[in-house]
Automatic annotation (TrEMBL):
<dbReference type="InterPro" id="IPR032717">
    <property type="entry name" value="Mss51_Znf"/>
</dbReference>
<dbReference type="Pfam" id="PF13824">
    <property type="entry name" value="zf-Mss51"/>
</dbReference>
<feature type="domain" description="Mitochondrial splicing suppressor 51-like C-terminal">
    <location>
        <begin position="244"/>
        <end position="408"/>
    </location>
</feature>
<protein>
    <submittedName>
        <fullName>Protein mss51, mitochondrial</fullName>
    </submittedName>
</protein>
<dbReference type="InterPro" id="IPR046824">
    <property type="entry name" value="Mss51-like_C"/>
</dbReference>
<feature type="domain" description="Mitochondrial splicing suppressor 51 zinc-finger">
    <location>
        <begin position="91"/>
        <end position="146"/>
    </location>
</feature>
<dbReference type="Pfam" id="PF20179">
    <property type="entry name" value="MSS51_C"/>
</dbReference>
């Protein structure tokens, strides 16, 4: 199988296995665009909402014995995961043979996952399984830890930062340290928390004054113009010198999340961590796309506090776009989390939305879940919108990717890191003028 096919099948399989149970009818009848190719891995966000009840929960797992054979786990959710693999998974030894392919039901004693169809194939494939085995072992223990019932101190996040507080955004370590996250003292805690914060902090890292992405390295000259425009709003005190009037204005930053899925289900306090990094600025986050709402929900707006607003709308972006009166590169930008623009089943469907976003001349940032995923999207954009866009941020590894690996339950050989890579473009423009008076 060539790489493209592997990537393609991976995407579809990842999606189907996870969403099947709750929304199968919805998935089948809906357009593939903006939704079909984004992998959502089982249990990503359940853990975050579980934290609220942790204090009331009884401790059920011993920290020294977090490893369990999945199919025999004391946690029902983990046993379910084994059952999904039993049903939809791939035995890697069978996969390389012409003979009928059996489902993986033999549990590897080292990682606890059902990896092969039988003991015989387990021994035949043991050498090839070795590397991923240790990864799966770590995922096994992490996932049991999340559900262990211990107090999850690492999820006690800091609140608003002071106006004079200096945050270093170089990487996760510096961010946690300078933002005074109370209990981020193990790699496991970092993995748990980064998996949720990768969404807001990937955005913040691009905007922030101490961004890890530097002009001349990853940021282009055109990109610097876009980012500098946004920063005049995000850091109003910097404008004092040449624009006394602007200093007292608070313009809202609009972030349009196209094809929003998992990020639309994050608890509000996760998104507050973005707002806290820019204490002067109100944010309005627009979660747009067919999966931005649960099937029984209507489009709606919500205010988290006086500085953070959400809109949830399950329209396709190009339809939603028509409702917005005007776009301004100083206050508006787009963010697409692993959209799969280059995927054959989604590429055409994305076109009207990408086209609309490019017309605004506002910056657009895009993540991918591994190198191949990112470059697949980059190639498609280069082919489909040639001459219509400028580079803002050259494709690079995202400092704020999830540190936790997600595994494809349909094929345990495949793992990804959410938001592994990041890049940015914007519609070609020849001149930008900004008149703050027009924004009222
Ligand atoms: Zn087999
Ligand atoms: Zn194993």
């Amino acid at each position: 199988m060539n790489r493209t096919l592997i990537t393609a099948s991976r995407r579809l399989l990842l999606r189907s296995v996870v969403r099947q149970s709750s929304v199968s009818r919805h998935v089948i009848t809906r357009s593939l665009t903006q939704t079909a190719v984004r992998p959502i891995f089982k249990g990503i966000f359940r853990s975050s909402s579980a934290q609220d009840t942790d204090n009331k929960r009884q401790v059920i797992l011993d920290q020294d014995h977090l490893f369990h054979i999945l199919s025999k786990s004391p946690i029902a959710e983990m046993r379910d995961r084994a059952a999904i693999i039993n049903k939809y998974g791939t035995c890697p030894v069978c996969d390389n043979q012409e003979a009928p392919k059996q489902k993986p039901t033999y549990d590897c004693p080292e990682c606890g996952y059902p990896t092969h169809c039988c003991e015989d194939h387990y021994h035949q494939g043991k050498e090839a399984h070795k590397e991923i085995c240790s990864v799966l072992r770590e995922i096994n223990e992490d996932d049991h830890d999340l559900r262990s019932g211990r107090p999850m101190r690492e999820f006690e996040f800091p609140s608003a930062q002071g106006f004079d507080e200096t945050v270093n955004m170089a990487n996760w370590d510096m961010f946690f340290y300078t933002r005074s996250f109370p209990s981020m003292d193990s790699d496991r805690s970092m993995r748990h928390v980064s998996k949720l914060l990768t969404y807001p902090i990937s955005i913040a890292a691009v905007l922030h004054e101490s961004s890890p992405y530097k002009y001349g390295d990853q940021i282009t000259a055109e990109g610097m113009r876009s980012i500098a425009a946004l920063r005049t709003i995000l850091y109003p005190k910097n404008r004092l010198v040449n624009d006394a009037q602007a200093q007292v204005r608070t313009e809202t930053i609009n972030i349009y999340l196209l094809g929003a899925r998992a990020e639309a289900t994050l608890p509000s306090h996760i998104w507050l961590q973005l707002a806290y990094l820019f204490p002067s600025t109100p944010f309005h986050i627009h979660f747009i796309g067919p999966d931005a709402l649960a099937p029984n929900q209507e489009p709606h707006m919500k205010s988290v506090n006086e500085r953070l607003f959400f809109t949830f709308d399950n329209a396709m972006y190009h339809d939603y776009h028509e409702k917005i009166e005007k776009f301004d590169p100083y206050t508006d930008f787009f963010f697409l989390f692993s959209p799969g623009i280059g995927h054959h089943s989604a590429r055409e469907g994305w076109k009207p939305s990408i086209q609309k976003a490019l017309e605004t001349k506002c910056a657009m940032f895009i993540t991918g879940y591994d190198e191949a995923d990112m470059m697949n999207d980059v190639t498609a954009v280069e082919q489909d919108y040639q001459g219509e866009f400028d580079w803002v941020l050259k494709p690079t590894v995202n400092e704020y990717r999830s540190l936790k690996r997600d595994v494809n339950l349909m094929d345990l050989r495949q793992t990804i890191f959410a938001n592994y890579g990041i890049w940015g473009i914007r519609g070609k423009r020849y001149d930008v003028t900004h008149n703050p008076e027009e924004n009222e």
